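Pipeline run #58 for the internal structure catalog. This entry was flagged by the ingest filter as a single-chain record with no existing model, so it goes straight to prediction. Upstream metadata was stripped on purpose; only the residue string is passed forward. Reviewer on rotation: M.T. Logging verbosity set to normal.
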Amino acid sequence: MSTKTHFLHLQFDAEQLTQVLQYSITSGGKPSKRSAGRYSGSYHFEKGDAIEISVTMTSMGDASSNMEVEGYSIAGLDLICQPHTKQLQTYLSPYDKNQASCQINTWGIPKETYDRKIDMTMRTIASLQTLSIASAGGQWSLSGYLSVLIEAVIDGISVTTPRVFSFDPEVIVGTGSDPH
């Protein structure tokens, strides 16, 4: 049984127009996404692997913007799995036999960094929950929905703007088929 830790990092910009999250899943500093072979294009895990999650909101110090970002909070991260139907699977998701969805709703304290070279502020919040891969094998389409509340001052008025961002990787555990 593997005990590898993977890191799911989600990122968005406070002023971005689209709803698509930038995301990466890494382990040991290397991408968990396979670029060749049987698992090409998917994220590959083994039973017992752990997934730690963090979210970063970026904001530029753009003088032409009328928005001064003060921070954000995470309302929740919903992960919904749809098993592939090529073979019988006994787990509804890689992390739970009886649930196709999972909500991550316990988050730490935001950490803020500033990069002077590009005039960008990055605010990162790490989840206090860790996902554990429970299934020994299978394939899923994963859809993730991140709900955030962005706090800013726009034209001198404090506002909180709710946003929902999404991402949708393919996930394979083990050999990709259920061993049962």
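catalog note: Residues 107 and 127 are 4 Å apart (CA to CA).
catalog note: The mean pLDDT is 90.
status: ready for reviewer M.T.
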